[in-house]
Amino acid sequence: xxxxxxxxxxxxxxxxxxxxxxxxxxxxxxxxxxxxxxxxxxxxxxxxxxxxxxxxxxxxxxxxxxxxxxxxxxxxxxxxxxxxxxxxxxxxxxxxxxxxxxxxxxxxxxxxxxxxxxxxxxxxxxxxxxxxxxxxxxxxxxxxxxxx
Length: 148
Prior knowledge:
It contains five helices and no strands. The chain is an all-alpha fold and 148 residues long.
């Protein structure tokens, strides 16, 4: 009988949350784009990924509050056994599905500074970081952070 690996329910929920957050960040509303209009239309300028200075829009940062650090540790900790069972390939996907929504939620530029994940976990939960590194077979967590 072939051995099947399943992604945990919590990883699936994180994936769904990440997809929703990504769509929200991209401005996708689910409404179709207008096409073929014969009249004159006025549209708002396209959203930019870099906010203008002085607009009050929060720019992504690499500074992490203690609460955000605890949140990341608390999100990784229960997934450690799943990383071990699923193996490094699926486990790495699972870690990315934890880290990216965490970064978006906390205004942290994870892709601009992948090492922030290691910095936070070394300081806040070194045991969790070490177990994740072992389960994911990686020298550090930054090495497996990818753009989704």
